[in-house]
Amino acid sequence: MNEPTVSKMKQMKLYGMHNAFKTAIESGRTDHYTLDQFVSMLIDAEWDERHNRRIERSIKNAKFHYKSSIESVNFDDTRNLDRNLVMRLAGCEFVEKNENILITGSTGVGKSYLGTALGYQACIEGFKVSYFNTSKLFAKLKMAKADGSYLRELAKIQRQDVIILDDFGLQALDSANRITLLEIIEDRHNNGSIIVTSQIPVQGWYDIIGEKTIADAILDRLIHQSHRLELQGESMRKKRGVNRE
């Protein structure tokens, strides 16, 4: 008797409701609910299913380089990482306020991992996120200028609530990349958040950007209303290698 109903739920893509209804019937638990409880259970199951699918879709669209989570961040005292600050940032109020996060530290201390973990958390909270390796992004946008798709690519970036610029400053910017960065920063000023990770301390970013006037314009917008995390300690990669031995 219930087979047509189960089939219609699946055809209507009510997958959460379909699975919950089917499970309740197969387990013989339908008598455990009043009518309003049963309807509520089905609605909750569908809501959870759609919510989880939306998170999965957001994470897939973000194109993170690897998996990361706030729960697995190492808050060892030697890392100079304020747990209370990180947990506040994980609440993603910084996105609502269009604030930036600047994460610096030497190679291997976990800058990219922390930035990615905050990006995952923003996806969970329902924000649109895109991860970029900074050098690869600049190369891609140079090609976009050549084939006429540059403005379209910038528009895609602008639509994101959060962008992650990973490994910023590995090489000094040329004039084209300098202007590209300025355009990205200007588009996002008071209209989105940026998470930047870099081996170079923030005070050294002027030299990386070059051209004082443009550097001033970029850093004024980037640093204003930003949260700065300066990681310290031994390389996490090196420590993991030692632990495996």
UniProtKB/TrEMBL annotation:
**GO molecular-function terms, A-Z:** ATP binding
What is the protein named? ATP-binding protein
Q: Which NCBIfam families match?
A: IS21_help_AAA
**Which keywords does the record carry?**
ATP-binding, Nucleotide-binding
Q: Which Pfam families match?
A: IstB_IS21
| CDD domains in UniProt | AAA (cd00009)
Concerning its family, UniProt says: Belongs to the IS21/IS1162 putative ATP-binding protein family.
Q: Does the keyword ATP-binding apply?
A: yes
Q: Which organism is it from?
A: Chryseobacterium vrystaatense
Which InterPro entries does this one have? Answer: AAA+_ATPase, DNAC/IstB-like, IstB, IstB_ATP-bd, P-loop_NTPase
Where in this chain does the record put each AAA+ ATPase domain? 97-230
